Structures are given as C-alpha cells and as structure tokens.
C-alpha cells in the first residue's frame, strides 16, 4: 500500500546499514547476509522493469514561503517567478501522487540557511545555536522535515554563521546533511556524513538501493576562512567523488545520485581556489565512473537537463539544476530493470517544474506562520528617516548616493576603530558593490528592511593596509566589469556591464578617492586621474581600505587585498553596522556623504 503523507514524512533516514521496512520504503535488514539468503533466486526470472523519480531543490537561501522580506510583500519579479518551500511542497506532493509516494525521493544541493531575513533572524537574533532553555526550530528545518526530504548537501553559505550554527541546524533535521569533501582539519576525516543509501521496493525479487552522495564547494575555505580555518578543510569535488562513488558501489548502491553544490561548467567568477575548481559538476560527471545523475547547485541557473558522457565508460550522465530560491523543482525520472539479480538504469531523463504554476501548501504556511509573523515585525521596525529617495538602479554605471552611504558607514566605522592606534592618521577608503539592483531607501520613514535590502549578505568588516599603487591595481581589476567601447560608439546598458563573467557583487568602487574609468581602453589600462583630497595619489602612499571579509579573504581574486596587513576586524555584520549608524544619525542626508567619486569616460568624455 502506498505511503500517506504523515507516514511518509516521519520515516527514518536511510543509511548503508539501516532499519526495518516502513510502508513501501525500507533500509537494509539488520542481518544483510540472512536477508540475502532469504531472497528467492531471481536469475531464472524474467526481467522486471520499474520507475521512480528523484526530485531536487537547490540554493533555497532561506525562502520558506513566497514572501519578500525586503519589500514586505508577496515575492514577484519580471519573470513572474514564485519562491519558497511552500510552493515546492505542492509540486512535490503532485509528483508523489503521480509516481507513487514510495517511488520518489527528495534531495537538496545546498545553501539552505542564508539569504532572507527569515533565516538571518534564527541565526543571529533568536539563534538556533544557543544555550537558551528554549531554542527555536529553524523554519527551514520545520518545512523540510514536514516535506520529507531524504538528504541535503552542504552549501558554502551554510558556513556564513559559523560551524556551530550548521551543527545546530543539522541536529534539527530528520534527514542527513551530507558533505563528503568537508573534512576535519585535525585528521582529514569527514566532518559530515558523506552519503546515504535509500532502499526502494519497486517490485521484483530484490529492492533497489539508491546511493546519494553529497559534495560542497571547496571555496568555503576562502570565503568563510574566519569561520572554518583550523577547524575544517574542503577537498575538490572531483577528487572526493573518485573516493566515494566506489564506496557507494561497494556498499550495494544500484543507482548513484550526486547532490553537488557546484556548477556544471560555468567559468569561475573568482579564480581563487585552485587547484579545486568552483564549478566542477560537469568535470565530475565526465571523469568519475559510476554516477547516474547529478543535482547541480551554486550557480543560480536553470538547467532542465544536461547530458555529459563519462570518458571512461561512455555512459551518459544526466545533470539538472533547478532555479534558486525554490523557483523550480528538478525531477530525474528513472526507468530501471532487474535482470539476472541485478538492477540497471535503462532510461533516465530530467525536467524542471515551475512553482509559479501552483498554490502554496497550506500546511507549510501554517507550520511557520508564527516565525514568519515575528520576522515581519522585526524587519518593519523604524530605524530613522531619509531626506530623499535613494535608489541603486543606476549604480552599475554611475556613482550614486546609496552606494556612497555604504562607503561612508564603513569609513566612519574604521576611522573610529583606529582612532587610538598608530594608524589613526592614515586616510581611510572603503570598498562597496551594488549587491541588489532593486534596493531603495525611500524618502521619509526608513525601516530595518530598507537597510537589509541594500546589504543582503552577512559580510563583516575588516581594515587592510594598502599602498596607492595597490589601490590603483585593485580598481583596474574591478573595471573589467565594463565592456570596451570606442569613443562615439552606441552605449547599450544591457551589455555594458558584467563582462568577463563578473557579477555585480564583484564590481567594487572605492569611496574616498576620485577617478575616471576610461572604457575605451583595454582592461588593465582604464583608471585615470586617480586622486585623494584633490591631489594625485602617490603610488607609495599608505591607505587603510575598509573591506568586507569576503573580499579580504580573497573572494573575487582582487589583487593585493588578501595578502595585505590586517589592522582591524569586526565580527558584526556590515548590515547591522549600517542599521546602527542610521539609528545614531536619525536622518539620512546625502549631503553628509554623497560624492561623485568615479565616472565612466571615453577619452575624457563622460559616458553619462
């Protein structure tokens, strides 16, 4: 008899050595040898064909319900996408009803607990990693447990709040959090379960065992260095798969699915974690024999199906990446055949389902309503007022006051921190990037969510010692963001930016100096008229650069900064620093911070 929802979501996680049968889904018997001996000889049986589906999400980033906490409204974008696990749950239940609840699995490829104010609140404001008598359950754990997830891989953003928060989240899950290449630094042994084996009863004389291997991004060692250094190390994705796919085969897995928090073949936007590539799912499929399917994550792209031929076996591996935030659900549809006592995959394809085609699952919405309401109240608290509307819309092309506000807050914070040190007399500059192209601080009342929407990442602030020459190199590197356009050539804003695979968050401007970016020149020769306090910057002069921890640790591979001397650091998020700054000022007045620090030019003529 097929499982119902309540039976289904309360079943135990399946491992290589499991428990008893629950409904149509079971794990290995307590005595595998006895169980095998009890099975009838299937060698004389006719081949038996069956079907099952593995569903997958990735890069949920704290989206439990279809809500935008930055705008305090139902989420919407130009493509009419919907977000959140409540929407995903409805699709999952439809697939289970169609395929059979005991013939489906549900997995995730990481980046679960960072990204919205909902997830931030339960990491920092009312943290799940706490010694309090009553520790809240993370809303993402509540939703995913109810939905009956079978496994999830770690994502790099899982570590943004520290290992303690990851562990607290792991303890709240009814399914394993996998990371075969996440190792203890002290002995290089796995810090999380590398894999899990699920057992499906699909008819025939022998159950089918599905091995799920979880792999995360090795860039964690750089991007969250402060949280993991000396505690955990991260091996390459291909290297780890070469170790654990044979282990899964030896443990009896008939089918192997990898949940990999790594893109298929995207050019790296960082270039900073060699010899372990950031986006290695395609390489893994091509180089590691034995993999049937890969649920891809990390790149926030929609790839319904990608076929990669393994170089050793000639076998086609099927990869799929659903769009982030719960906007899509990937489905791997398997046909398997039991013949002569062995299961084999005879057909496999992947597809994605769109969550904007269904309503939210009311059970998920109800389960996290109290937490959702708490966070809505939190983000709507008033922190000050603004004399004028500050929009980020033009920030990719022009120096706008809202980005200067970030720079000013960071500059003031570092100046105050260094006031009683030997660095007090050095000029302080500040790095900032246009993280969110929809950010806006309205005229009049300013709420916490307005500041949070401007600085959407959990970055902290550092101060690094740099020379004038190094600052110029830093800006030259950043200017690769722009296309090269001859004087007089038409300007298309749609193609002007994001060149050389540079995302918005890797385009830095520097507050405190002034300069032109001559986009008629090639990359590396674009920064002209670099000056400080009205005078040309001396290449040998010393500056303090206020910079976020991601950049300071090497994220984006900007020159010099990662190796530069650290003169100060803070454990508080820059977002909170901004909120505190606004509260202290009371009024946001662009006259206090807005400058035209940089501009795009062609042969000296401003582009805008």
From TrEMBL:
Keywords per UniProt: Hydrolase, Metal-binding, Multifunctional enzyme, Nucleotide-binding, Signal
Domain of life: Bacteria
Record bears the keyword Nucleotide-binding: yes
Gene3D superfamilies reported in the protein's UniProt record: 3.60.21.10, 5'-Nucleotidase, C-terminal domain
Annotated 5'-Nucleotidase C-terminal domain residues: 382-562
Span of domain Calcineurin-like phosphoesterase: 53-301
Cofactor(s) listed in the protein's UniProt record: a divalent metal cation
Residues making up the signal peptide according to the UniProt record: 1-29
Subcellular location per the Swiss-Prot or TrEMBL entry: Cell envelope
UniProt-listed InterPro entries: 5'-Nucleotdase_C, 5'-Nucleotdase_C_sf, 5'-Nucleotdase_CS, 5_nucleotidase/apyrase, Calcineurin-like_PHP, CpdB_N, Metallo-depent_PP-like, TAT_signal
Coiled-coil ranges from the UniProt annotation: none
SUPFAM superfamilies in the cross-refs: 5'-nucleotidase (syn. UDP-sugar hydrolase), C-terminal domain, Metallo-dependent phosphatases
Keyword Protein transport among record annotations: no
Reactions the enzyme catalyzes: a nucleoside 2',3'-cyclic phosphate + H2O = a nucleoside 3'-phosphate + H(+); a ribonucleoside 3'-phosphate + H2O = a ribonucleoside + phosphate
Family, as annotated: Belongs to the 5'-nucleotidase family.
Protein name: 5'-nucleotidase C-terminal domain-containing protein
Taxonomic classification: Bacteria, Bacillati, Actinomycetota, Actinomycetes, Kitasatosporales
